[in-house]
Specification:
The structure holds three protein chains of three kinds. Chain A is mainly α. Chain A contains three helices and no strands. Chain A has one domain.
Chain lengths: 108, 92, 329
């Protein structure tokens, strides 16, 4: 492996790490849940790219296993969270509309 | 390479601190999720592949799912929107 | 001179002394009225021989003393709170300092002269492949040298799942139907039969479960092993459950499946390891040899033990999720 190639990989990984850090700001500060979800997904994608770069840098094949596993599983928690949260949100909305209807009937 | 180490370790410390300090449970769990994601890379750099695989499978997948379902069970997600609105008004 | 005297009279120390000797109550002004001892009133009434409602008087005095003591308590609470915060800060700070000093005294990372690198780890690294037949030294360690720890871990997982079942399971026969209906309505608002998720799950679930089986079976050759592979299989099942709902998963995974699979795996683990410990920890060399390192059918008992651990972990993960969502597997 050429020396300049490894150096290039290192620089790219450092840039990716800085990008992960920037995405973390949105996770912590983000005003809404959606911002946080999207930025967590972004962190997952960048980590995946970083794992594959590490495979080439360290020249170890087993790291590809981890990358593949991570690709297959990382979206699952986001799916579960969206599903549960949509349920809670719709329940709240329906309760609010039911309360409004009741108030209107009482007004009549 | 040491710069990469330093950035990732600082990331871990920031994540751990804010996961403890944040008032909203759901946000804490999401920050914890990103923590375990980056922890997998650190295990790889420390050359412990078994831990890296286990962390990627359990930490990023199953643990956060169980956390979300538990939050739904104890009705901690219901206050989520109100909390956000309050923080919005206070920030403005 | 007089000024100094007044300062002294108003000083905290003087107030404290007065408070201690009872000359002047420091709560006197804060209470807002003069303190009259109820006994004096009583004596007055006794001298005039009037008929007095003593219960009413007693109630009033009780009320008064309750108010008085509440103010005193509030003040004490305030002082106590300050003291408590101060003590908490000091405790936290000292613990942090102790831990930091301990970390500074630790031997440096990766140093070959560290106390961790003793003859035990040397033996594991040098003769692990020979004695256990596992290429992955970690698998050889946790399922051969330290198999008893892994037995305890898998039992802990099983016991945790059983405890969740005790707390959250809802029987259809004994529980009242309203509660069950409320629980079903709990999931009523969530989206069902989403086309994108279902089509993705159709392709992904077999791949994920196959990958988990690959990691379980190759636990002694490549990194991974029972725990990670079981978690992957469990997440594949959870994805299937999210896409297709409980009715489809109940066709192949019920409480009976859960109990049969986990109990039989734990029994197999316990029996095989008991036999191997009973015969002098010779690892059943007479029945299953270590084989050629690198082949799948090698490393003695490690492969079946990995499969047992993976089955327990997969069942536990799926069981947790189903119990939390539905109140039953």
């Amino acid at each position: 492996m050429d020396k300049w190639f490894l150096g290039l990989l290192t620089v790219l990984m450092i840039i990716l790490a800085v990008c992960i850090f920037i995405a973390l700001i949105r996770v912590i500060k983000g005003p809404d849940l959606t911002n946080r979800l999207v930025s967590v997904n972004m962190i997952g994608t960048m980590v995946n790219v970083m794992i594959i770069m590490l495979t080439i840098y360290l020249q170890e094949e087993w790291l590809v296993d981890v990358a593949m596993l991570y690709t297959a599983i990382s979206f699952l928690s986001v799916i579960v969270l969206s599903k549960v949260y949509i349920g809670v949100y719709k329940q709240k909305a329906s309760e609010a509309s039911a309360a409004e209807n009741k108030a209107e009937e009482e007004a009549k | 390479m040491e710069i990469l180490y330093a950035i990732l370790l600082v990331f871990l410390i920031v994540c751990a601190t804010f996961a403890c300090l944040h008032k909203n449970f759901l946000t804490s769990v999401i920050i914890f999720m990103s923590y375990s994601v980056v922890m997998a890379i650190v295990w790889m750099l420390l050359e412990s592949p078994d831990l890296a695989i286990t962390e990627a499978a359990v930490g990023a997948g199953v643990t956060s799912i169980l956390f979300f379902v538990t939050l739904k069970k104890i009705h901690a997600m219901d206050q989520e929107k109100n909390c956000d609105e309050e923080t919005d008004t206070s920030e403005i | 001179m007089s000024k100094i005297r007044r300062d002294y009279e108003n000083s905290l120390w003087r107030k404290l002394v007065r408070f201690v000797y009872g000359e002047n109550d420091s709560f006197h002004e804060k209470a807002g009225y003069d303190i009259e001892h109820p006994e004096t009133e009583k004596r007055k009434e006794e001298t005039f021989f009037e008929e007095v409602d003593y219960t009413k008087k007693k109630k009033e005095s009780d009320k008064f003393f309750a108010k008085y003591s509440a103010i005193a308590e509030k003040r004490g609470e305030k002082v106590y709170n300050h003291f408590y915060k101060f003590l908490a800060a000091i405790t936290c700070f000292s613990i942090i300092m102790i831990l930091l000093v301990t970390v500074a005294k630790l031997p440096s990372f990766g140093n070959p002269d560290n106390p961790v690198n003793n003859e035990v780890s040397e033996r594991y690294i040098e003769q692990g492949l020979e004695e256990t037949g596992a290429v992955n030294i970690v698998a050889g360690m946790i399922l051969d040298y330290r198999a008893f720890d892994t037995l305890g871990e898998s039992h802990v997982l099983f016991i945790a799942c059983v405890c969740v079942m005790i707390l959250l399971r809802l029987d259809k026969e004994t529980n009242d139907p309203e509660k069950l209906k409320a629980l079903e309505n709990d999931r009523d608002f969530e989206p069902k039969n989403e086309a994108i998720l279902q089509h993705a799950a159709k392709i992904l679930v077999p791949v994920i479960i196959l990958f988990g089986i690959y990691i379980v079976l190759n636990g002694h050759i490549s990194p991974g092993g029972g725990f990670a592979g079981g978690a992957i299989i469990g997440s594949g099942l959870i994805l299937y459950l999210n896409a297709f709902g409980f009715k489809k998963t109940e066709m192949f995974f019920t409480t009976k499946t859960f109990s049969v699979v986990s109990v039989s795996s734990l029994l197999f683990y316990s029996l095989s390891k008991t036999y191997s410990f009973f015969t002098g920890a010779n690892d059943l060399h007479s029945i299953i040899g270590p084989g050629t390192p690198g082949a799948i059918l090698s490393a003695g008992l490690i492969l079946p033990l990995n499969i047992a651990v993976g089955a327990v972990v997969a069942c536990t993960m799926y069981g947790f999720y189903a119990l939390f969502r539905k109140g039953g597997i």
